[in-house]
Amino acid sequence: MEEQLVTTKPGYSLADLTIYFLKLGTWGFGGPVALVGYMHRDLVEQKRWLTEDEYKEGLALAQLAPGPLAAQLGIYIGFVHYRLLGATLTGLAFVMPSFIMVVLLGMAYRQYSGLAWIHNVFYGVGAAVIGIIAISAYKLTLKSVGKINLTAVIANWPLWVFYIVAIVITILTEQEQILLFIGAGLIYMLIKAPPLWLKRPVNLPVLLVAGFGFWNYSKDTLIAIAVFFAKAGAFVFGSGLAIVPFLHAGVVQEYKWLSESQFVDAVAVAMITPGPVVITVGFIGYLVAGFPGAPVAARATFLPCFLFTVVLAPYFKKIAKNKSIKAFVDGITASVIGALVGSVIIIAIRSIVDIPTAIIAVAAMLTLIYFRKVQEPFVILAAALLGVVIKTF
Asked: Is-above-0.70 flag for pTM?
C-alpha cells in the first residue's frame, strides 16, 4: 500500500501560503540553514499551519533528494495540502524576489563594471566570498562526511575516500565529474545496503525548457544554458553552495562564458541577496545571454528540484525507509562536497592575488567562526568597504 500525504483541510489558504513565501523570499537572509529555520518557526511554532511531522518529512525529503535545501522544502510545504498548484506557487513566490534582484544587479554590473569603484568593491567582496565558501565547505564536510577524528574517519572510511578522491580529481581536471558522483553513490549503496535487485528501470519525466527574449540572442547559447544548468540543478544536495563546483567548471572552464573574477562576483551577488543561494544562476544567465539567459538558467536549475518534489512527495514515507536509496545519496553527497572543496582551492588560488585579499579572506572566515550571529551579507558589505578603502588609499 502506497503511503500518501495527509489530506486534512488546512487552516490556511493557498493565497496565505504564497504571500508568506513571497515575504520570505524578499527578506530571508542567512542561507539555507537559516531559511529552513524560519519556516519551522513561522509555519510550525507560530502559525501552526503544519504539524511537526509534516515539517520533518519535508526536511528529510529536501536532504535526501537533489535540489537546494530551502527551495526544496518550500516546494514540499506547498505540496502538502495544495498539491501541484501549491508546489508551483510557493516555489515561484520563494524564488521570484531574489531572481528579480539578481537580474537588476546583473544589469548594473554589466553597465558599470568598467568603473573603478565597482572594481574596488568586488576586490574586497571576491576575497570575502572565498572565506565564506571555505567555512561552508568545512561545515558541510562535518555534516555530510563525518567529524575529523580518527574514530569517525575509520567508521566512515568509504565516504572519506570518495571525498578525498573528488577533491583531487576536481583540482586536477578543473571540471565537474558527474560519473564520479554517480559511481560513488552506487559503490556506497553496494557496501552499506545492497538492493534486492538493480535491473528495475527507472523512468523520470523530461520537460523541455524553452527560453524567451526581448533582444537578439543566440538560440544555441540558450539551449546550452538550459542543458548545463538543468544538469547542475540535478546534483545539488543539501546546500546551494554545492552547485559551485558545477558552475565553476562549466561557465569558466568549459564554456568560458565568464572570467574567474566574474564568477566570484556572481557568487558574491547570491550571498548579498535574500532567498536561495542558487539564485546566482539568474545573474550568470543574464551576463551570458542577457534577459533571455536569466529565466532560462533559473528555470533549468530549479526544474529538477521541482520535479523530484512533486514526483516523490506522495510516496516519500516509503522511499525514506529504503536504506539502499539513503546509502546511494550519502555516497553522492560525500563526493559532491569533496568537489566543492576542490573548487574552493582552485578559485582561491586564482582570486587571492595579494596580501590584502588574503587578509580579507581569513578575516571573513574568523568572523563566521567566532561571531556566529553575524550573517554573510554583513561580511560581504564590510569586505566591499575594505576593498574601496584599500584600493583608494
From this structure: no
